[in-house]
Amino acid sequence: MTDDQIQDLVMEEIRKRDITYYDMTGLPGNGVDPNPQDHITPLCRKGVRSNRFKTMLGCDRMKELICAGKYNPYADTLQLRIPFQDLFRFWWNRCVVQEYVVDDLLDDVYEFFTSLMTPPDERPKQEEMGVFIDFDQLSLFMTGMDRAA
What we know:
There is one protein chain. This protein is an all-alpha fold. About 45% of the residues lie in helices and about 5% in strands. The protein has helices spanning about 5-15, 20-25, 60-65, 85-95, 100-115, 145-149, and strands at about 30, 50. It has a two-stranded antiparallel sheet. The model has no long low-confidence stretch (mean pLDDT about 85).
């Protein structure tokens, strides 16, 4: 998916669910004023409704918007309608100051190579767990379309 397609998909979901700015920023369970500019009408007569989101955190709210199928906040893994690589590219292109992220990334890469170059006698003496994650087999953020490929 292109960045524009991702933005269109999310905005379409926001429109379809009739989500407002106040839903995006308010707490779940709290009332959302349908007309916050109206300071004359008493709140009890404005038809205050519940926030349309079930969850509080922004990352969970995004999962609600782009999950494939019905959203379950208790599920360990969640299928997203946007492939993770495309979502990451969208984040990189539109959501971060790349110069700041590059510094953190380069710090992490530097630490990795420094640890590789550490002489064996200076390495901490601790047992390491044998953990290997094959990200190609990881289905946490994969969509059905990715698995078929």
